[in-house]
Each structure stands twice: as C-alpha cells, then as structure tokens.
Amino acid sequence: xxxxxxxxxxxxxxxxxxxxxxxxxxxxxxxxxxxxxxxxxxxxxxxxxxxxxxxxxxxxxxxxxxxxxxxxxxxxxxxxxxxxxxxxxxxxxxxxxxxxxxxxxxxxxxxxxxxxxxxxxxxxxxxxxxxxxxxxxxxxxxxxxxxxxxxxxxxxxxxxxxxxxxxxxxxxxxxxxxxxxxxxxxxxxxxxxxxxxxxxxxxxxxxxxxxxxxxxxxxxxxxxxxxxxxxxxxxxxxxxxxxxxxxxxxxxxxxxxxxxxxxxxxxxxxxxxxxxxxxxxxxxxxxxxxxxxxxxxxxxxxxxxxxxxxxxxxxxxxxxxxxxxxxxxxxxxxxxxxxxxxxxxxxxxxxxxxxxxxxxxxxxxxxxxxxxxxxxxxxxxxxxxxxxxxxxxxxxxxxxxxxxxxxxxxxxxxxxxxxxxxxxxxxxxxxxxxxxxxxxxxxxxxxxxxxxxxxxxxxxxxxxxxxxxxxxxxxxxxxxxxxxxxxx
Length: 488
Known about the structure:
Layout: H1 7-15, H2 21-39, E1 42-44, H3 47-62, E2 76-80, H4 107-114, E3 118-123, H5 157-164, E4 170-174, H6 181-187, E5 190-193, E6 214-218, H7 221-231, E7 261-265, H8 275-290, E8 294-298, H9 306-321, H10 339-350, H11 353-366, H12 371-392, E9 398-402, H13 418-422, H14 429-434, E10 437-445, E11 452-459, H15 464-476
Parallel strand pairs: 2-3, 2-4, 7-8, 7-9
Antiparallel strand pairs: 1-3, 4-6, 5-6, 5-10, 9-11, 10-11
Helix pairs in contact: 2-3, 7-15, 9-11, 9-12
C-alpha cells in the first residue's frame, strides 16, 4: 500500500532504501490506472517523464543525498492544470488553449524540482478556476472519491480528489475564493491557502490576480507544512511576492495549544449551515479547548457582504486577465471573415458558459457609469473586511469556522442555480479578500451517506506557522485523517 503513505513516511522509507522513488511513482501510476476511470482527477499524464525523474532521484538517493537539502527527494507531486510545467500541456481545463504546451516552469515547479520532487501529471479543474464543483471543466467532471455520484468541490477538485484517492502523495492547487480549502473539506484531506504574496504566482495562469494564491493539498498537516515551506518565499519575478523569510513550519508542530487564543465568528454560524456540519465543528472547537486553547466569540461585521464583494472584484479582474485569450496569442484560433470576427468566434467557441458569465459580469462592473457604483464600492468594502480580520487578530491567534456549509452535494444539483453554487464558498471567500492565511482539515463525517466535513482555521498575514501548529495538534489527537475513501 505504498500509495497510502504520507510524505513523511515515504521519505523515511526512501532514506532507509526500503523502497525507491521509481516504486513510489509506479505505485501512483498503478493507482491512477485502477481508480481514475471512476474519479477522473487527471487530465494528462506523462508516465515516461515521471519515471525518468524518479530514476534521477534514485541516483541521487544512492549517493546519500541528504533530505535536509532536498526534503522532497523522490516524492511524486502533481499539479493543477493552470500551473506552468515546461514541456507539459497547460490548458486550464479550457478548449480555448487548444494543445498549448508550456515553454517554462512556474516558480513553484522550480522550487519543487530544487527540493527533489518528481513533478508529474495535470489535474482537472473548473475552467480557468471558475467554479465550486469541477463541473465546469471543458473535458470531464471529476468525482468525489467518497461517493462518485457527488462533486469533489472546486475549482481544484482534481487536486483534492487525487490526494484523497491515493493517486499522488501531494498536489498543488490555487485558491481564489476557497478553491483549495473547499475541495479539501469535501474530499477529506488537508488544503492550505497561504497568505497573499507568500507563494509566488509567477507561472500561474491568472483568474483574479489580487485574490489568486497557490497552495498544497496533502494527507496530513505535517506534509502540507513541508510542501508550503518548499514553495514559499520571495520571488523577484512576482511584484506582489513578500520579501519575508520563510520559517521552518515543521519545527513548530506540537500537541500543546496552551496559551493560544481561538476566535469563533458569530457571523459564520449562519442559517443554511447543515446541522451535522455545525455539530462536527462544535465538537472540534471543544476538542481544541481540551488541548489547552482558549476560545472566545469575535465579530466580523462586514462578512455578510463578502460574497457580493468577491464576485464584483473577481469577475472584474477575470474580464481583464482573460482578454489575452483571443486566438492571436495563445492556443486555439477559429477563422473569421476579419480579425474581429475571428476573435468573436474563437472566444465564443473556446470559452465555456461559466467563464462567459463572469467575463460579461466583470466587463459590466468596470464599464463607464458603473465603475464607481460597483467596482470602487466593492474595493472599499473589501478594505473593511480586511480591517475586521486585523481587529479580530488583535484578540485571538486564529479564527475557527466550518470550511463549507454542507458536505459534498450531488453532481448537477446546483449547476442550474449559479447563486447557490457561489454560496458554497461563503466561509472561504473573505480570507482571499483580506489576503490572510487559511487551512482546512478533516473534522468528522456525516452519518448517511458518510461524507467528510472540513474545519477551517484562519490566521493573520504570515500566520501559517500558528495555523499548522493548531491543525497538527487537532489532527494528531483525532482519527479523521487516517480514514480512506471506499474505492477498493
């Protein structure tokens, strides 16, 4: 059962020569062959390239290469389909990019390689990261490994499902409004949205540039902390990258929470929250208290405006970012009678319905006469939301909440109601608007059907270390992370 190991356990086996990187990669490939026809997490797989990387890692391991220098040496890690990987397709799950092959590596890929990881595979997603269910992919719908009639969450549904199904030891996704934490919660794994600017966005195809953030999925908090440390750090090629040193997150992991103050936001316990989710999060808060943390109520008074604010800011930025996909610069081109006709036909046939919906909305809120009424006002509300969080973090070290209002819903259940789909991210969106850090980890299951429930921890800017400490203490004293989907 090599494919079920955590990164920490795989690394120990690699060090002890109890297995090779080739065997670890082959275990992933075998698992993908066995379960991905049902899960459909992957869009593209280059097995020969992955095995060649694994053989190179094994040669370095044979020389006694120390893991402190290359902490992911020989570990297979897969990528969401909007992170550029040299020589591999990068289509953002959209038809408009055609057969585009990335000519360069994103900074996070360079850092994974420098850490010795075997970078392989392209994972399914909602087209251009727009969606909450991975039903908006132009190629196929990814399914939840716990119940293949249900969605895995989105937009990083492929990244979450691959980790939960044992198809990769860790994956990278992107989080614009909850697209790492929401699918992590629905698939029962750990997902991290780092502070805005903590991880370089160079080589990430932009959806909404002021909200996007790359982060990891993993089976354990310790693995997520390790991958975050590898990919984080200043990058001069990203103007928003923070020039702050990256601490060793793994060194802060312990089981003791004495002295830590946790906040529960009264605005997050809203109507529409599934009773089983509410009960599981309530038990998790009580458990955190038993580990030594103190808990108090905090208020985030402007959070009720977060969803509306998000969909104005995000769509405005998306309408500008996606203007580059016009049939001239990248990917697919559909002929027309003149350049305008070519662009219209290319974009009309290349983009899916959700992308068109958001481009139209974004163009509207930026148009003359509506900019002040919508976009400018949304940016002012965004500032108030950030101030709410910073004020709360003067009193507490982290805020605890559900990650999602419900467990995974059925395929197609919300596709005809975009507003209900948008509300799936109601607890995660404000984190991106405020630019703070967040993590989701398993905290229980619904009774029937048995589906994962996620616990969200939000921390101040650059507060990832505290979040990992709290999450690790909770995880190691509860059984949820040891459970696996019933795919075998």
